[in-house]
Amino acid sequence: MSSEAPPVTELDAKQMTEAAWVEVIQQMEQVYSNLISYQVELEQKNRELEEVNQLISSVQRAMTEVLLVTDLSGKVIQHNSSLEQVTGLDADQISGLDIYSLFAVEDQPVLSLIKQHKEFSQKEVTLCHPVEELPLVINCSRLLDSNQQVQGMVLIGREVGELRRAYVRLEQSHRELKLTQEQLVNSEKMASLGRLVAGVAHELNNPISFIYGNTHALADYCKRLTEFLAQIQQTELPQSVIDSRQTLKIEKILRDLPSLLDGTMEGVERVRDIVMDLRQFSSGQTQEFRPFDLIHIINTTLRWVVKEHPLQTHCNMPNALEVVGHPGRIHQVLMNLVQNSLDAIENDAKPELWINVTSDDKNVTVTIQDNGPGIDESILPQVFEPFITTKETGKGTGLGLSLSYSFVRDHGGQLTAANHPAGNGAVFTLQLPLNGGRQ
What are phi and psi of 88, to 5 degrees? Predict the structure, then answer.
């Protein structure tokens, strides 16, 4: 028994035809939509590619280095404007040139590496152009396509002179960094020393105050006892008391007591002054300007530095002179200057040091002169630069005068060095504004 398909009516055929057309239309709409999407995406890619090309062009124009690209045979296919500037050729003249025609004959061993598609770096060559030859240091790398196949070679060259200037700048930066490091280390040492000195001064201050007060009390007690014994001496005394007075040498004790007390008081006052100087020295690490007696600072410097050196000093200065600034840092400056002079005259048979202080209504000027050999004329202009020293290796860092110059400049002052016109040693001149450079 067989089954037969139902006959297709005219209505059914019409419906099938309409469905087919609907499907075709839908597919066409889908294809059109895809085409629109592809077009939008392609336009976006084109914009991105154009931006990349613009970026590459901008980079090439901004490059000071010479850039050129060759094909596999060594012909120039692309270059930047720097190559045109140094050769004097225009773009049309450069395009298609053989790489050998741009460089000196002596550079052929290096250029052959380019035609062998070998990469290299830091090779020195000479670029030939109408005006003069230009030495370059070039780096070379392969130009690859999307399949990592070599399509040519890329060369970047920089003037040797520019490299040398860059090296000089690098060396200068290195020296400045080293100086900064040395100054930081020195500042930290001075800060640590300042804290230590401040602590020692604080610990010494209390017992010295006790001794100072007790010495004043002893002086008063001795005065009273002396008056009392003098009154007793006027009365009738037993012979045993008179004998004891002679045996115990009471008269000598009474004569010696005032000088002993005066000597003790003078010693205590000197120790107290030393403690005050230590505290003043340690205060150099603070950042506050305040009034201080410059003459006292100079005298303290001479006591500290000169006491171990047998020499003759000549001082011409007032008894006191108030200036505004960092007393600790000015103390360091004066110590550096005096010590520098002492180092210069340590081998002199008759070492001498002159210190002269003058002032007007705005500034104070301190000159420190020695009778040493003076400063070598070759280093005199750089004497305040870091690491410049005439001392033996290991005896000086070359930072003392540099730091002193920096401290004086921070005070709005000037520090200069010269040799005495008569050939009598070196002369350092320190000039400071009385108000510390503050208006």
Answer: 75, 10
Give 353-404 pLDDT, tens digit per residue: 999 999 998 899 999 998 888 888 878 777 877 666 656 544 555 667 877 8
Q: Are strands 312-316 and 352-359 parallel, antiparallel or unpaired?
A: parallel
Burial annotation 241-264 (CB, 10 A radius, 16+ → b, else e): eeeeeeeeeeeeeeeebeeebeeb
The CATH number of the domain where 106 resides is what? 3.30.450.20
- Give the separation between CA 183 and CA 168, rounded to whole angstroms: 22
Q: What is the pTM of this model?
A: 0.44
Look up residue 370 and give its two tokens: 């020695």
Q: Which residues does 196 contact at the CB level (< 8 Å), separation at least 6?
A: none
Last residue of a domain, one of 161, 191, 207: 161
Provide the 10 A C-beta neighbour count for residue 166.
12
Task: Output the CA angle 115-116-120, nearest 5 degrees.
Answer: 95
- The reply to whether 216 falls in a domain is no
Distance CA 158, CA 243 (A): 107
What is the DSSP track for 151-179? EEEEEEEEEHHHHHHHHHHHHHHHHHHHH
